[in-house]
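Let us practice reading a record.
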Amino acid sequence: MTKPKSERVKEAQPHLARAREQLDRAQVDSWDPADPAECVTKCFYAYENAVVAAATAMGIAWTKRHDQKAALARRMFQENTVKTDVGDRLAKLNELRKDISYGEPGEELSEVDLEGLVSDLEAFLDEVNEIVSSLEEE
C-alpha cells in the first residue's frame, strides 16, 4: 500500500536536506585550494541522497546499494519522474569514491571539473526540490 503524499514528503525532506548540506561542503572543497577527493565523495553522497529523496517522495522503493541507486536514477529518468539522468554520473562518482577510499585515486580524479560537478549537482537538487515541493503543495 502506498503511503499518503504528506508522509512521503515528510520522509523525503531529510534526504534532501542532507544532500544540500553535502553540496554546501562540496562547494567549499571545490574552491582553491581544492580538495578533489572530498569534493567528489561529498557530491556522490549528495546525488544519492537526492535520488532517494525523489524516489521517497514519489513512493518508489529504493535500496541502500550504490549500484542500485544508479539504476534507480536511470529508471526515474526513463519514467519521466526526473528530468535529468544522473545514473551514469552516480556510477562514475562511485568508482572514483572507491578509488579514493582504497587510497588509489587515479588520474581520473585530477581530470574532474569540480566547479562543473557542484554546479550540476546544485541544479539536480533544485529539480528534486521542485518535485518534493509540488507534492507538498497538493
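A brief commentary: Residues 20 and 46 are 7 Å apart (CA to CA).
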